[in-house]
Amino acid sequence: MTAAHAHCHETALIGSPFRPALALPCLLLLAGCSSVPTNHGKVEGESFRGSELVQSDSNRMATIAMKENLDSLFIIMDKLYRRNPAQWRKTAESREAAIAYVRIAVMERQPWHELQDKRDVAALSLALQPDFEGDRVAAFIYAAADMMITSHGGRTSFTLVDGLDPQHVFNAARNLEIANWILNSRRAQDGKPLLLSNQLGDDGRNLSFEREMGKIIGRLDLIASYTTERYRRAVIGYGQGLLAGPFMQFLPVR
């Protein structure tokens, strides 16, 4: 029993006369403590696919992380377009159409012509220049996604024959941190922010952009650390096999 429950019981029991004025607050408190928690969803796995037969646990982990990171970038794109509607009008007749165009370019590894066919960090740098005149939201999301995919060897799905360079993945996380800082601090030629993203002010607070970007950086760091540890443990396991070999020989039984 919590202290609040105990106080309510003590108030109701001590003293002979019943006190309605105190009973109602206690009943409301008890009802609040016993209410059903809000449903925040549950973890659900994907349906089985034949491609998983050629994936190790680490391949599957990297594939899922890449999928979720790209989904997070597309969520960020939608948030940026909503706060910067003048940007999607440079690409399409509607926000939904602009999102679709960028998604196709990212997933099919098509060049984005406003970025002068640049890729990877070169495209990211151009998208964040103060004098960039194209759809900055599309350019930023496309460049960030292309840089991230490049750090994974140019792949979005991984099998037993694929390997990851953990340092490249780690560098991608740092690049996104730098890009996020530039987006929040650098000004366009007219003195305004490059893009309206986070909101901190007396009229409201909106940090959903920052939280979604943080998820991407966290996943990249986890994949980098996990891949490094997997390679390290493989070397240790090989050494353990060499050391334990002489002691693990079968003995004659007749």
Structural class: mainly alpha
Strand fraction equals under 5%
Give a count of the beta strands, DSSP E runs of length 2 or more: 2
Measured as a percent range, the helix fraction is 55-70%
Strand order of the largest sheet: 1-2
Mind describing the biggest β-sheet? 2 strands, antiparallel
- Our count of helices gives 9
Order of helices and strands: HHHHHHHHEEH
Structure description:
- The chain is mainly alpha-helical.
- It has one domain (53-235).
- 59% of the residues lie in helices and 2% in strands.
- It has a two-stranded antiparallel ribbon with strand order 1-2.
- Helix 3 (57-83) packs antiparallel against helix 9 and helix 5 (95-107) runs parallel beside helix 7 (136-151).
- Residues 7-16 have low confidence and may be disordered.
List keywords for this structure.
two-stranded antiparallel ribbon, 254 residues, 9 helices, mainly alpha, 2% strand, 59% helix
Task: Map the helices and strands.
Layout: H1 3-13, H2 20-33, H3 57-83, H4 85-88, H5 95-107, H6 120-127, H7 136-151, H8 166-185, E1 199-201, E2 204-206, H9 208-244
Antiparallel strand pairs: 1-2
Helix pairs in contact: 1-2, 3-5, 3-7, 3-9, 5-7, 6-7, 7-8, 8-9
Concise overview:
Helix 3 (57-83) packs antiparallel against helix 7 and helix 6 (120-127) runs antiparallel to helix 7. The chain contains nine helices and two strands.
